[in-house]
Amino acid sequence: MTIKIILFIAFLLPWISLFFAKGSTIRKFMPVTIFTCLLMTIIFQIAYTYDWWVIHEYIVPWGYMIDVSFAYGVFAIGTFWIFRFTHHYFFLYIVTNLVMDAFMCFLALPLLDKLGIASYKNITSWEYFLVIFALSFVVYFFHKWQEKIFSPT
């Protein structure tokens, strides 16, 4: 039961942090946040198909395929805040993502294994790191494209 509470907190707490953002900031970065959720959903579906990891504890019935707490909580809103503070500086954005992705792959996910929440199976930490780090480039260029098509001319 304690693990489920941790998962609910990991899902809800990041969303509560949006109360500290201006409405215009939320409108500006929510498209990239939603796009990130879409991409993470696809990655989780691929991971389920190829047995990259096993999710042992989850908060929704389909949680054995998609870790809702991570994909739609921590990762999504983490992306929002990273863009909020680094979107004008590509190098800073990449370094921030490099550090956060490394933290996730090499520290946080092994901790999830120890807690019995999820464990790697057919993918190594390095391979998953490369997947989500590559994702940061896709997301960045999506945001730049999005900015360009919605900016006033």
Label this structure with key terms.
153 residues, mainly alpha, 5 helices
Task: Describe it.
With 153 residues, the chain is mainly alpha-helical. It is 75% helix and 4% strand. The chain contains five helices and two strands; from the N terminus they run ααβααβα. The protein is globular. The N and C termini lie far apart (53 Å). The model has no long low-confidence stretch (mean pLDDT 92).
What can be said about this structure in brief?
This protein has 153 residues and is mostly helical.
| Estimated share of beta-strand residues | under 5%
Q: How is the largest sheet built, in terms of strand order?
A: 1-2
Specify the number of helices: 5
Q: Provide the gyration radius in Å.
A: 16 Å
**Poorly predicted segments:** none
* SSE class: mainly alpha
Largest sheet, in brief, is: 2 strands, antiparallel
Q: What is the residue-averaged pLDDT?
A: 92
Portion of residues in helices?
over 70%
Shape descriptor reads globular
Extended strand count = 2
Task: List the helices and strands in order.
Answer: HHEHHEH
Termini separation comes to: 53 Å
Sequence-ordered SSE layout with sheet pairings:
Blueprint: H1 2-16, H2 23-50, E1 53-55, H3 68-86, H4 90-115, E2 118-120, H5 125-150
Antiparallel strand pairs: 1-2
